[in-house]
TrEMBL record:
Belongs to the sodium:solute symporter (SSF) (TC 2.A.21) family. This is Sodium/glucose cotransporter. PANTHER family: SODIUM_GLUCOSE COTRANSPORT PROTEIN (PTHR11819:SF77), SOLUTE CARRIER FAMILY 5 (PTHR11819). GO terms for molecular function: D-glucose:sodium symporter activity. It is a multi-pass membrane protein. The chain crosses the membrane at residues 6-24, 36-57, 77-97, 118-142, 178-201, 208-226, 259-278, 299-324, 344-365, 402-419, 425-443, 452-469, 481-503, 542-564, 570-588. It is found in: Membrane. Keywords: Membrane, Transmembrane, Transmembrane helix. Gene3D superfamilies: Sodium/glucose cotransporter (1.20.1730.10). Pfam families: SSF.
Amino acid sequence: MHWLDWSVIALYMGMVTLIGFLFVRKANASVADYFVAGRSLPWWLAGTSLVATSFAADTPLFVAGLLATKGIAGNWIWWNQAIAWALAIVFFARLWRRSGVTTDAEFIELRYGGKSGAFLRGFRALFMSAIVSTCTLAWVMLAMQKIVQATLARPEWVESLQLSIEQSFDLAPGAIDLWKWTVLVSLFLIATFYTVLAGFWGIVVTDLVQFVIAIVGAIVFAFYALDSVGGMTGLQAGLLEEYGPQRVSDMLRFFPEFVSLRAGLSFVVVYFSMLWWTDCNGYAAQRMFSTRDERQSTLASLWFSIAHFALRPWPWIVVGLVALVQYPGLEDPETGYPKLLMEIMPPGLKGMLVASLLAAFMSTVDTHLNWNASYFVTDIYKRFLVPDADEAKCLQVSRMSVLVYAVMAIVVAYFMTSIESGVLIFFNLTSSIGLVLILRWFWWRVNAWSEISAMIASVVFTTMLPIISDRYDLGWSFETRILLTVALVTPTWLVVTLLTAPVEAKHLDKFYRGVQPPDLWWGPVAARCPEVLSQGGLVRPAMSWVSCAVMLYALLFTIGNSVLLQWSEAAVSAAVVCIASLTMWKTYPRS
């Protein structure tokens, strides 16, 4: 790369380091400041932080790979989540903020109470921080290696040093990649540094910087990529010449073409009825906890949904399509994105794009480290180990736990050799337990054992079904396994719910008065709490939810059709956006 590119990258690294120093005082104010920014963030900052965090460094590469194998329609593997976020906009954003908790694990004890609630709170905190999030960080580090290899050339002195190390320790050539690990660990340590110093304040501000760099860089990259093939008409002509009309038609579809009724029903049932099941917990909920009030939480969720689902994918898709024209024979289609970046972007802009990918990696790292520490301090240390710990001690433990989780992630990444099928396993696990996470807000009878049994059953069936499929040569697809897992997990936790005692009435009443969840199936509790005003049923909120989801998808297709120069389709989609937005606003619950 040109010296100007290295200067841009160095400037960004210096900027985020400076932010770490600038927000030390704010982070030191309290544990709430360290983990949820003192619950004072405006909607645009909380929402933008979530947009930046949800963009991993390899996301554009992942999208490019989907285009090569499944076309634009392959993005439904994550587009389906817009349904969940529509539900968050209408319901969960307000409820999460109203709960007043710091972590979603803390909410478990708020909702259930008792020994089972305390156990589940501690178990979830430990499981999510020590296993799920740490393994996610390790996976992100492995994925980042591909970007480092494609964008940052290995200096000659590193080659010499690596050769010397291999000879000194009698290692096989290439046993270690000194350059990759030096870059990755350096980026990881910088992110850890400002996370330790500035806490959540430093994270959201660096996320804002990263988002601006990433979105501007992606759009500029898309324009340069299109220009390299003669614009959109040249791109379409190049695709037709390289792949033929039928393949291009399949590639540019927004929905997959169903070869049978069974395949169509499978797509609808799985992607629209099951995969999105979630109440937007975890680090997404952390952003909702951090906002000033319920309105700001809702607006943050709305802004995130629009930016994440409708705005951000299209520059990546455009570049991915150009890469298919420029490099039709790539063995790994995902490498087309960084390869094109290095070949067509001029000095300075190339550095900005590379910096945005490095920043995306650091954004994921800082969020997970702070999130992990919030679990440990709030749900393990202060809840079980040292309940009377003061603020100063908790802040000290917070910083120490960030460092411990950072070391754990690096160690796991070093020994992790494969991430194959990890994403699909994650979707399988989360979709099968998602229904109980949603219904705990709507049905008083759900208890801690409901969640515990759902988690156990999900792990058992997610593990067993692929084994059974292979053993008897059944050839079950990803969608089929999800259908079967949900069909087995759901009755399991429902039976456990009905066979175990409900949450104590006094605890349910306190939760109902404080959080005021939708009163769909809270009859006995609502009868004991007449002072809590009824929200008038779920018909209007359900209409608002559906309208919000339609609006998000219509906006996604409006932008997509405009990018592909399909103006009549874009006009129809834009009209749907207007109608759905008005319907959502008119039916939105005001309480």
